[in-house]
Design goal:
With 40 residues, the protein is an all-alpha fold. Helices cover 75% and strands 0% of the residues. α1 runs antiparallel to α2. The longest helix has 23 residues. The model has no long low-confidence stretch (mean pLDDT 68).
Length: 40
């Protein structure tokens, strides 16, 4: 696997995590969002 490919896969994982984060963020509870986003 090329370095660029590995980086692309990592970015995809980050994006998936972020979108999941945003999905929870649209929910009612702020605390739930923080835990889902790693406390951010």
């Amino acid at each position: 696997m090329f370095k660029g490919e590995a980086r692309r896969q990592k970015n995809r994982l980050i994006n998936v995590h972020r979108s999941a984060c945003l999905h929870v963020l649209t929910g009612n509870r702020t605390r739930r969002r923080e835990s889902a986003c790693g406390g951010k």
